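Severity: low
Component: inverse-folding endpoint
Summary: output formatting inconsistent between runs
Steps to reproduce: submit the following structure tokens with default settings.
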């Protein structure tokens, strides 16, 4: 019976992988523009029926107190549309980034701002850290780094569904440089990248249970401190990069100058202060284009935040609006 169950589970997994590959093959036939339109339309249309849409609406209402309800729902629908477009665009990751830095005036669906910072990172013979967020198509920065031969390892969280995770990893592997799964023991691999003067790219806008408490969108949030810890240890430049989704299936990548991170009394980078600064940069991005962020994620979890703050010896003042501030 155990063997039969194992065989059935494996057969189901293989069938799901085949189905997802067939779906991506269909999206490739449609082309990047039409597949993006289809994915965006499907999730935007279905979003009111998706249970986690309630989380998105609640997050938007608290992040923008006093916002009219029609605007709240517009932002939520836009966030679902962006997610649907990004999912459909996975079928085209190898060809989606078509910017030619040697001929920047050539027609392209992608434009890049701050290209001089990419060049500096490549030529300074030092390790570097690049943080980003779930905005626009957040896979593009890693593809951009690969296109510029910037030795970069992208830290990613695999999708929960094993079949989707397998196909997405295949696609990422063919379009990006190094990849490091965010799992137990990953910190050692990430440290190795920096020790050989490589670069790490990481999304920092999701909840992290063992994180540090930083302000984000008017509420405290638990954030993974690993980028701040590496910045402190390696004294390396830290940049932010975001993707803005433009009309007509186009994108804009923006790389910030290196951040001047806060330091403690001993002159070393303050980890919590560094993560607060990075989170503030991300907050500015989200406020500028709120309809392009992943609002359906449970970013704020008051019970965990209160426990983390208490463990760190921080005072937590409760309020009827923010639950924990």
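Observed output (run 2 of 3):
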């Amino acid at each position: 019976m155990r063997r039969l169950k194992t065989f059935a589970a494996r057969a189901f997994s293989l069938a799901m992988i085949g189905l997802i590959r067939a779906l991506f093959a269909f999206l490739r036939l449609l082309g990047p523009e039409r597949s993006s339109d289809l994915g965006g339309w499907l999730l935007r249309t279905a979003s009111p029926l998706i249970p986690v849409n309630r989380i998105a609406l609640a997050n938007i209402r608290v992040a923008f107190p006093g916002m009219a309800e029609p605007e709240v729902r517009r932002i939520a629908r836009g966030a679902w549309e962006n997610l649907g477009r990004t999912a459909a665009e996975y079928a085209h990751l190898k060809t989606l980034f078509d910017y030619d830095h040697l001929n920047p005036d050539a027609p392209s669906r992608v434009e890049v701002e701050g290209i001089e910072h990419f060049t500096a990172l490549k030529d300074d013979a030092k390790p570097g850290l690049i943080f980003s967020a779930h905005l626009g198509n957040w896979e593009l920065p890693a593809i951009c780094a690969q296109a510029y031969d910037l030795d970069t390892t992208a830290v990613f969280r695999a999708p929960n569904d094993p079949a989707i995770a397998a196909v997405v990893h295949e696609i990422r592997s063919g379009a990006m440089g190094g990849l490091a799964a965010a799992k137990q023991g990953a910190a050692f691999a990430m440290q190795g990248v920096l020790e050989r003067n490589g670069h790490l790219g990481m999304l920092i806008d999701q909840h992290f249970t063992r994180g540090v408490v930083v302000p984000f969108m008017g509420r405290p949030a638990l954030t993974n401190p690993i980028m701040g810890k590496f910045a402190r240890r390696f004294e390396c430049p830290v940049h932010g990069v975001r993707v803005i989704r433009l009309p007509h299936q186009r994108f804009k990548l923006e790389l910030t100058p290196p951040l001047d991170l806060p330091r403690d009394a001993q002159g070393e980078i303050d980890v919590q202060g560094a993560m607060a600064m990075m989170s503030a940069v991300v907050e500015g991005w989200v406020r500028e284009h709120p309809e392009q962020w992943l609002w359906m994620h449970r970013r704020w979890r008051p019970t965990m935040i209160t426990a983390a703050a208490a463990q760190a010896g921080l005072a937590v003042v409760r309020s009827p609006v923010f639950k924990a501030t």
